[in-house]
Amino acid sequence: MENIKQIKFQNKKKPTAQFDILKLENLFKRKDLDHSIEEFHKVNFFAIILIENGTGYHTIDFTEYKCSKGTILTIRKDQIHKFFRSDSINGSLFLFTDEFLVSYLEKSENLRVIQLFNDLLSSPKLQLYPNDFLEIQQIKQRIESEFFEKNDSYSMHIIRSELHILTTKLLRIKLNHQNLDLERKYLKEFIEFQNLVESNVHIYTKVKEYANKLGVSTKTLNTITKEIVNKSAKEFIDDIAVRQIKRLLINTELSIKEIAYKSGFEETTNFYKYFKRHTKSTPEQFRLAY
Amino acid sequence: MAKGITILGILVLAITIISCNSTKHSQSKKEVKMELSNKEKVVALLNSFNTGDQTPISYINAEKYIQHNLAVGDGLAGFGEVMKNAPEGGFKANVVRAFEDGNYVFTHTEYDFFGPKAGFDVFRFEDGKIVEHWDNLIEVQKPNPSGRTQFDGATDITDKEKTESNKKVVTDFIEKVLLGHEMDKLTTYINPEKYLQHNPAVADGLDGFGEAMKYFAENGLVMEYTKLHKVLGEGNFVLSMSEGKFGKGEHTAFYDLFRLEDGKIVEHWDVIQAIPPQSEWKNTNGKF
After folding, report:
1. How would CATH label the architecture of B160-280?
2. What is the CATH number of domain B38-139?
3. Nearest 5°: phi and psi at A130?
4. Would residue A239 count as lying in a domain?
5. Contacts of B94 in chain A (CB under 8 A)
6. Same domain, yes or no, for A128 and A225?
7. pLDDT score, position B29
8. Which of A236, A268, A240 has its CA nearest to residue A254?
9. B228-278: per-residue pLDDT in tens?
């Protein structure tokens, strides 16, 4: 229980540190925790989970990801996630706000780091090969040693840089696994479009509206999404809209009517039709299934 | 700075919980959930084979535990008897997949149980306790002609809103194609472009399926499904438990696990085990 005390101490001492580490084995130590960590919750920070031993599941949004030695899970702001309680799981959970890492990086670097967490670009789950696992584990050990043992006025600066290395290496491994390249054509434009849709999809749903905002033609927008995610711009907008609705269904107690309104539907019947068309289930069925 | 407060808030909450106080003053809006989920209990129970942890035994109802493994005696006593007779080093279990459907939990596990075995287990819960158990076991074999093992392949569970419709697809597949021999309906249920096969003797695709059937016919062997007993599912995974004849006509239990994408079967694992004659049964509950 030594580490836990330190975490608590750490947070009291540096409430603005914006960074923390939790050991999974400590989270699950008790058999009958009264708990909220396994309940779905929305995280307001970035999280990286590294599984070092054992097996279990971790739910992110609408998928239960099987975890085993060498599994990396990346969770970004707005995603909802849920722990699977298992004594056999060993690993670390790194948490940081965007202020901790991102505000310290220059803009283009910031844009790169964030892509590690972009669930529309790649899966939140990454299974490391043994040699990559060793490398990542070494970085993890250095971070934990700074955090739990050294813990002086240099530590947070060192951790920040280590975290930058960690996220960049993970991004490289992830994109290599999926044959993606950050320098590839249209990726920058894609991310710009994605960000715009994610924050406006409850207001604007037409491709034309986004094309106007971005100062490109709808044809170009289609080329961009086709190239990166093999979907039309309209399909991509719908995809984001449906994800956001699903999150509201699972993560809030809002009525269907309120969710419809929040998602930009004035008529609940239209909301039903829209949701059913894209998920083949009603909002109620979806909520019940999770 | 709002984010800073949030991160701290959640951490403090987690820490308070770890420190094991009953935290009745917890600000959690939802009702505080003490119990492990049924799936977490089953995984803990199977993991206890490796650790010797006694706690998960308490997840089994001591008064009522209906055993359908015909080589094991009924009740918790039967389970205890097996564990007592474990070879040196005990049994080992690696839960590869775990699913929950209503009061049922089903798992796909790599066992060391008197030698390496692949197994499906099904547990039924009442009031948070295990009251019934079915299973099917087979020796671990070499990778099949497509290089797939009895365990590898997809593990992530998604599409939970499609559980019922996916169960319907598998039910129809078994009733129409395997029981009803409507072979022309095969591609209605199985994706002809992508069918990943984990049966140790069969290759990927419908061709693999066809070749296996041909081999059976030419060699006077049978693979006949006579009754579908149970279909369980969680999201994109569905397990079916069926009865029939296999090989030279032996009375057999078929457990088939399917993965579905867009309403079609794209991946398959199975465990096929002979049902012993009734004279050898250690309980009277039957295989299904």
Report:
1. Roll (3.10)
2. 3.10.450.50
3. -55, -40
4. yes
5. 55
6. no
7. 35
8. A268
9. 999 999 999 999 999 999 999 999 999 999 999 999 999 999 999 999 999
